[in-house]
Amino acid sequence: MSAPNELALREEMIATGRRMNATGLNQGTSGNLSVRVEGGFLLTPTGMDYDTLVPGDMVRMRMDGSYEGHREPSSEWRIHRDILATRPEVGGVLHAHSMFSTSLACLRRPIPAFHYMVTRAGGEDIRCSDYATFGTEELSRHVLVALEGRLACLMANHGMVALGATLAGAFKLAVEVETLAAMYWRALQVGEPVLLEPEEMRRVLEKFKTYGQQPARGG
Ligand SMILES: [Zn+2]
């Protein structure tokens, strides 16, 4: 700490964590968040309830994995670091064990083109990464592969990740992905959802580009 803007970012992280609780994205203390800052990133500490966090609890990490602060960083710091190191367009990363995304991830089932809003994650589907033990470099590698050309993915038998230019953008996308996962889950209870053609998904992707950065809900 702390330029005033860094303090504001720390406060935003806490507020976003509390919104993750309110929207049901968090299960227990399993979610974590990061925000890019000069020289590295801020990350939520491991195993703490967002209701009790104060700005000084955020961990300031450098890209080499070293950190400052009186708390231990989230055990998934490698995923946050590796995404921020390889995706310069990303400024915020959110990881959660949200109910429907994780349920699909336990089936190793990606979210296909069953709804046009799937394109909000950057492509025609939302992939599910391969499995590796939590907190490992191997898991981080699998997640990076599943995120190629995408802003979100499921993580096999684990959870989900959403990216944004800002933390607010990552949060918004995480809510969208969880909503899509819930819809897909429900549709699967009745039958096999009809999938949109790749050509239609490309058309929607193009159409959203003209919406600019607006969090458009489409028609
Ligand atoms: Zn996790």
Automatic annotation (TrEMBL):
A GO MF term: metal ion binding
Record domain Class II aldolase/adducin N-terminal: where: 11-185
Lyase found in the keyword field: yes
GO term, biological process aspect, one: pentose catabolic process
Transmembrane segments annotated in the record for this chain: none
One GO CC annotation: cytosol
Residue runs in coiled coils: none
Domain of life: Bacteria
SUPFAM superfamilies the record matches: AraD/HMP-PK domain-like
UniProt entry keywords in alphabetical sequence: Lyase, Metal-binding
PANTHER family (UniProt xref): 3-OXO-TETRONATE 4-PHOSPHATE DECARBOXYLASE-RELATED, FUCULOSE PHOSPHATE ALDOLASE
Protein name in the entry: L-fuculose phosphate aldolase
